[in-house]
Design brief:
about 0% helix
Length: about 120
């Protein structure tokens, strides 16, 4: 069974940094398009950034370009989101998403809370 588990969220002051991790189990990360989404209170879920199955970053949200970096470690079956210069507008629950390259099966993690105080 495929499972995604996020970690690394927390509370930080504006201008600070956090690194989120998403471990995928029961599957091989390179078989999936991996993404980070976020959902702020009262707002719809939005795509933050994605990795192709080949591990190339794509689709950065405009407001995070230059501040966030998505990456993965295939040996650890783990995806990361390095977040810098955090702003209060980045406050949200961040979710990991995996879509299988062939077949389209989709999985979500439970989410990790990021709170940025100004």
């Amino acid at each position: 069974q495929v499972q995604l588990v996020e970690s690394g969220g927390g509370s930080v002051q504006a201008g600070g940094s956090l690194r989120l991790s998403c471990v995928i189990s029961g599957a091989t990360i390179s078989d999936y398009v991996m993404s980070w989404y976020r959902q702020a209170p009262g707002k719809e879920r939005e795509l933050v950034a994605a990795l192709t199955a080949g591990g190339y970053p794509v689709n950065y949200l405009g407001s995070v370009k230059g501040r966030f970096t998505i990456s993965r470690d295939s040996a650890k079956n783990t995806m990361y989101l390095q977040m810098g210069s955090l702003e209060s507008e980045d406050t949200a629950v961040y979710h990991c998403n995996a879509v299988k390259l062939f077949g389209g099966d989709q999985y979500w993690g439970q989410g990790t809370q990021v709170t940025v105080s100004s």
